[in-house]
Design goal:
With 156 residues, this protein is of the alpha+beta class. The chain is built from one helix and seven strands. A hairpin with a 5-residue loop joins strand 3 and strand 4.
């Protein structure tokens, strides 16, 4: 009887396993390295959406509020005077767009000012509302900040 001896090398060699692990590790490191970039992008888009929402809400309130009244809206800002000019006033918001009493924990800062003038082509008195949003809210002036400005002119 004849002995059959198969000398097949089934499986993977150590070099193939090491190369596969190296490629896998490289991919994992690349994905983990991109996470902070993605999180910063999501945070910036969220702050920009909050700024747009707050500005458009304030504009809508200005359009429907009677001259001389005071805006009171729980989710925006309380006591924004419509008739009196308002100097540069800072308001702070958290990551959900809710107003805060001070800059502690704020992610979004709004600088708010109004100016009244006689509008020649607008039929009487007009008010300009300027809102400048910046984030991060507590960043020093020398660091990088994203800024969005909104300006509305309302004639009453």
């Amino acid at each position: 009887m004849m002995n059959r001896h198969h000398s097949s090398y089934a499986g993977f060699s150590l070099i193939e396993v090491v190369i596969a692990l190296g490629i896998f590790a490289f991919c994992i490191v690349a994905i983990v390295g991109l996470l902070p970039v993605g999180m910063n992008s999501v945070r910036s888009v969220s702050n920009e959406n909050n700024a747009i929402h707050i500005a458009s809400s304030i504009e809508g309130i200005w359009h429907v509020a009677p001259q001389g009244s005071t805006i009171t809206m729980s989710n925006i800002i309380t006591n924004l005077a419509i008739s009196a000019p308002v100097a540069n006033t800072n308001y702070y918001f958290d990551e959900f767009g809710e107003p805060l009493a001070d800059s502690t924990g704020a992610t979004l800062k709004m600088n708010y000012s109004t100016a009244n003038y006689t509008a020649a082509g607008l039929g009487g008195n007009a008010t300009t509302v300027n809102m400048t949003f910046s984030w991060p809210a507590n960043a020093p002036s020398t660091s990088y900040q994203t800024v969005r400005e909104f300006s509305y002119t309302i004639s009453k």
